[in-house]
Every structure is written in structure tokens, then in C-alpha cells.
Amino acid sequence: MSGIYIHVPYCKSKCDYCDYYSVVTSQGRENFGNLVEKELILRQGYLSDSEIETIYFGGGTPSMLESAQISDIISTIAKRYSVSNNPEITLEANPDDISEEFVRNLRSFGVNKLSLGAQSFSDIDLKKLGRRHNAKQAIKAVNLAHKLGFVNISIDLMYGLPYSNSRIWEENLIQAFTLPVKHLSAYHLVYEEGTPLILKLSKGLVVPVSEDQSVEQFQLLQEISSMNGFIHYEVSNLAKEGFFSRHNTSYWKQVPYLGLGPAAHSYNGISRDSNPKSIIEWQKSIKNGVIPTEQEVLTPQDKLNDYLVTSLRTMWGANVDTIAQNFGDGNAKQFLHTAEKYVKLGIVEQRDSVFRILPKHFITSDGIISDFLAV
Ligand SMILES: C[S@@+](CC[C@H](N)C(=O)[O-])C[C@H]1O[C@@H](n2cnc3c(N)ncnc32)[C@H](O)[C@@H]1O
Ligand code: SF4
After folding, report:
1. Quick one: which atom of ligand 2 is closest to the CA of 59?
2. Extents of the domains making up the chain
3. For residues 333 and 313, what is the distance between their CA atoms, to the nearest angstrom?
4. CA proximity to 243, closest of 252, 253, 234
5. Topology of 2-252 in CATH?
6. Which ligand is nearest to the CA of 192?
7. Which is the closest atom of ligand 2 to the Cα of 131?
């Protein structure tokens, strides 16, 4: 079982807060699909013979690709790999790119999950974040995708925004749950290095939310989503039963994946491999038939830390027996020592050999998890 991720490194414009790798130029876009297919063939041995369960087009803005490019990439994967009978095929899309024709095409190529970057349903927020769409367009995009047969629709929302407040966030959530969505990714804003937003922060042009406001908004997220039957299954992800992201869940469960395109990462259980964060470098390598990755062979400690970071972010938690089996009794003992401290505090719950951070404490999970890491 494995996954394939395709990083589409194009955006029509850059949003103020975002540091995902993408370029605003359309240079080379018409040839992007061909190069991804070439990379797919070049790196065919990476995943050995395992069956592909999930395919994920992320970005950047995958909805800027021509439909034919998306179709060709999916066909090449199907030709070169054994794809399971019921794969999850996801495409991230910006609401302003959604047209009836595009959605119909995606459905006909087998894309069965659409992840729409709504971010907020407040036009003031959207403008200040540098988004190209307005709230009406996001609502229209979700409804159109639903009308044309998409059952599995996810939206991205952000909270902890400097211009916003808890009332607007509450209204955003209420709006979100009136829509036919089955999955919600809700991210607390992070001030990323090198973004226009962090520059504004350093100049005092934006004021970050207080810790109390962050907690209040996180609690609103939990209350309103739970009232609507959504399960908080990972720090930033909530869904109706049966609609947890299979692709992301496989990252959190150490399932191997192949990442294609500039800045994409891959993992095969032995190494983590990174493609260059440069579209030019990536294109040059692929055109020359050279695998573009930089390889980092994982030490047992890296693997243990990966296991802890990913599993403790989810409602499924970490299993001390798995740690003992894969990383030895010493590491299991150390894990238990830390886990018991958090169990006593009522932050971590123990069920047999499984320990999980209770979802109501997900907001502080980064600090808790760092306490578990082997150094
Ligand atoms: C790959 S990005 C965007 C996909 C798509 N291009 C879009 O804009 O809708 C995935 C999501 O990460 C979130 N995100 C990006 N930068 C963030 C930041 N600095 N803090 C919190 N969330 C962020 C946004 O919700 C975004 O939709
Ligand atoms: S949030 Fe999406 S559209 Fe905006 S810059 Fe990032 S990847 Fe591009």
C-alpha cells in the first residue's frame, strides 16, 4: 500500500501568509504534466511493487493545470503502477478556478475528492489575506461540485487570523456546516518566515491574536464541528465518519509515498527524499533523465521521532508495544515515563498499550509532542 503526491508549483498570485513552494509565472506550465509523467517513470522503482491506494494533487494550485494534464498523469500512474480498485484521488482547488466543465472533467478522470481552499467566508478576511476569491465564489464552488456528483468535498479554513475575531470565526464555521462538505481542514494561522505577513507583523502592521483568543477559537471549532457530527481525528483535520483523508492518514501511519514535482518529498521507510525547491532545477534534471532528489537516510532515532510526531497528532495515538518492537525496550520505557506524566495531568488517555492526546488538548500538541521526542 502506498501513495503518490504531485506538487503543482503554480499560483496566480501569492497569498500573504503562505510559504508553500510555488511560482507566479506560468513558464513551463504547459509542459508540467509531461515532466511529471517522466519523473514517474524515472522513479518507478522507488515504491517497489506496492499497490497505489491514494493519489493527491497538491500545491500550489493544482486547479491551474489543464484538465488534459491531470487526466494524462492519472493515466500514466494507472499504466505504470498497480492501482487499487478503490483509490482516493484528491485535487486541491482554488474556488475561483472552479467551472462546470472543469468539475465534470475531474469526475470523468476518477478524481473523487475535491479540497477547496475557502479559508474564510468573510470578504474582509479574504481580501486582507490576499485571496483572489470572495465568500460567494467559495460557496458556489462547493455547491457546484456537489451538484455535479462530488460526495467527498473538503474545505480549508484558517483561524487565529489577526484581522478577525471569534465571532467571525464562529460565523465561518456555521456557514461551513450549511454546505455539503464531509471534511474540514482547519489551520491556526502560522506566521511563516519570508512571507509578506510576517513582515507586516515585524512592522507592527498586524497584531497577532492572544493565546486566549486562539484557545477560544479552537474550542469553537471543536464545539461546532462536533454538533455537526464531525470527528476531530487529527490536529488540523475533522471529518464525518468514513471521510477521514486516506492520503494524509497514510502519511501519519508511515505508509510509503512517492512525491513528484518541485519541492515534493518522498518516503519509502528507509529514506526521506526531497525534490529541489526550484522549478528550473527540477525541470532540468527531469529533462536530462536524472533523478532530482536529495536523499536523507533515516536513523532509527529519526524513524522513532517520525512515528511519535505523526501518531500523536492523531486520535489513534501511539502504541508502546509498536515502539518496543521497532525501537527497543529502552525507548518504550522512556515513552511510558513521559506518557504517564501526561496521563496524570489528564492530557493523554491510555487504552491498553495505546496512548493518545485527548483532542481537546490538540491545540497544545506541538509542545507536548516535543517532550516525547528522542534527542
Ligand atoms: C497547499 S495550501 C493551498 C492550496 C490552494 N492553493 C489554496 O490556496 O486553496 C493548503 C492550505 O494550507 C493552509 N495554509 C497555508 N499557509 C498557512 C499558514 N501560514 N498558516 C496556516 N495555514 C496555512 C491554507 O488553509 C491552505 O488552503
Ligand atoms: S494559499 Fe494556495 S493560492 Fe495562496 S499562495 Fe499558497 S498555494 Fe498559492
Report:
1. 7
2. 2-252, 300-372
3. 21
4. 234
5. pyruvate-formate lyase- activating enzyme (3.80.30)
6. 1
7. 4
- pTM score over 0.90: yes
Choose which residue among 6, 10, 20, 92 to substitute to test ligand 2 binding: the one with the highest number of ligand atoms within 8 A of its C-beta: 20
Task: Give the closest residue (by CA) to ligand 1 atom 17.
Answer: 18
- Contact between 21 and 35 (Cβ < 8 Å): no
Q: How far apart, in whole angstroms, are the C-alpha atoms of residue 130 and residue 126?
A: 6
With pLDDT > 90 as the criterion, what percentage of the chain qualifies? 94
Look at residue 21 in the predicted model and tell me its pLDDT.
97
Among 88, 67, 100, 78, which residue's Cα sits nearest to residue 3? 88
**Residue of 249, 250, 228, 251 whose CA lies nearest to 240:** 228
The reply to whether ligand 1 has any atom less than 6 angstroms from the CB of 198 is no
**Mean pLDDT, the chain, as a whole number?**
96
CA–CA gap between residue 369 and residue 313 (Å, rounded): 8
Grid cell for residue 273: 527524499
Predicted confidence (pLDDT) per residue in 189-206, tens digit: 999 999 999 999 999 999
pLDDT at 117 exceeding the cut of 90: yes
Q: Is 191 in the pocket of ligand 1 (CB under 6 A)?
A: no
Q: Report the nearest atom of ligand 2 relative to the CA of 94.
A: 3
pLDDT at 49: 67
Span 52-70, pLDDT tens digits: 999 999 999 999 999 999 9
CATH class held by domain 300-372: mainly alpha
Q: How far, in Å, from the CA of 17 to the mean position of ligand 1?
A: 8
Residue 330 grid cell: 529502552
Check if 94 has its Cβ closer than 6 Å to any atom of ligand 2: yes
pLDDT-above-70 percentage for the chain: 100
**Measuring CA to CA, how many Å separate 214 from each of 38, 124, 327, 336, 363?**
45, 19, 36, 30, 9
